[in-house]
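Work Package 3 (structural annotation) set out to generate three-dimensional models for the target panel prioritized at the project kickoff. During this period the team completed the workflow that converts sequence records into discrete structure tokens, so that structures can be stored uniformly alongside our sequence database. As a representative example, we reproduce one entry of 229 residues exactly as it appears in the project archive.
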Amino acid sequence: MKSMPRIAKVGLLIFISAILMGSGYLFILWHPASYDVSTLVPSYEKIQEQDEVRLSVAKEAFSYQAKKIETQIINDTDEWLSYGYAFQLEVQIDGKWYKVPFRKGGYFLLPAIDAKPKSSSSFDHWIKMYQCRPGHHRIIKEVSIETDRDRSKIKESPELGNELKSGDEPKIEDAETTRETDAAESIRALTSQGLTGDQAAAVLRYRQEMEKRKKEPQRINVAVEFDLI
């Protein structure tokens, strides 16, 4: 058998090289780019680990090209929960969490959603609004615990209908004037106990702040982890 001519050998080498280069190019096209950690913002969010309010997912891995991830929001408390559509998507790199960049033009709807005590509900988190890449991720969601809320006591007052039918207009006091009058009376009561005007005003501000905090719901961050592949 005669040896292969030199020109044929060169042609064969070029052909093999082209195949190898093409395979490498296809691999690059198929394999998605990873996150550039130098462009990511570190996350310092604190997660409240608890069993009564939590997020869960049906599986441990999803496609990084998925439009949404279905989660379960579980409320095992005796209180109402309130949460919105907004959430934060983060990626873990070398043991540290970073915020995944938001896609240009993305936005969240504003309406709040209620969750009854001792209940669970499905909720879709639309990860397509983020510039997702493969990696270990987590969704962080802020949830408000409505400790002073009792929906069972909210009902229509029958007296209001009777007042309107009687032809007499209901008397409505100006809310701002009422607050100013109450504040002035509180300061007079405090000064009568020996406090100066400034001291009475400081005590009143403290009481108002404490009352405000009582009415504000408790806000916590809950999270669930998963992989994007």
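The chain has a mean pLDDT of 79.
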